[in-house]
Description:
alpha+beta, Serine Threonine Protein Phosphatase 5, Tetratricopeptide repeat, 3-stranded mixed sheet
Amino acid sequence: MNRRAGFLIACVLLAGASGWAQMLDSWGPGAEVQVRLQLEYGGTLPPMAKVEIFKGDMPFGADTANTRGEVTFRGLARGSYTIRVNIPGYRLEEAPVEITTGGDTRFIPIVLRPDPNAAAVDLGPSLDDPLVSAGVLGAPDKARKELMKAHESRINGDCKKAIEQAKKAIEVAPGLVMAYQEMGMCQTSMGAIEDAQKSFETAILKDPKFLYAYLNLARVLARKKDWQGAAKTLAVASKQHPQRGEPYFEMAKLQLATNDPLRAEATAKMALERDCSRIPEMAFLMANIHAKNGNKEQAIASLEEFVRKNPDTPQSARAQYVIEQLKAPTKPPKNQ
């Protein structure tokens, strides 16, 4: 009998059949869990969709879904796991996973459902906005190509690569403010808030009229609970662009977040008096404000109007979902 065979027999005698099975499983190939995200009402998945896996109460791993909504976790030992998906604008979703065999592959579909109480989802600037396109078109060809690569990388969830590409664009064209914008948005997503603040502040220094840098700087300051700093930033943005609704939209969100729904309603109406064509979340913000002020019927009416004007869109489907939730009868307290 060789030394290894003797060792294995000893393991069986000491650990017993159950313990030996676990030992073999730990030596064998780990299991694989493939997660696939999809929206309840269809449409494009939100960028930077983070998926986490826990073993018991302990975080075991995390990854960002690709453009198809897929994430794969490999090398998992036997045991009980939980998949968790927490995306702004959607309800927290969890799915239990039981791994019983090494080398096993499990497929876990997770449906994302809109959260009717969620704050408006922050979206990046559109490249066809005149405030953006003029600066991009005026940049050197090499810088423009790196910027577009950075934009695509961020949309596809690869922020590390996006930041590298944005820095390359800045090396060629230090005044290309959209490169700082892309970098700052990625830094925000990655939780590097101080770096993001510096990126947006630099963009403003390079171009004091670049609206999106003000909007994102205000969001970063609000995340740091610097409400006064965020409000001042939005005030400057509204002076730079008095006909754009975005500064007032963001201010209304800020007022709602600080429990001042009446002022938020007045500010949101000021946004509606201006150009809101690039704010797809305006209807949801107004509905949220009306609901917080106890005007459920107004909330429903504003969303129904949005559905009429924007039929057959993912936003319309989300609005219809919120309408159904608002119309649902309120359950009486259990003690009644």
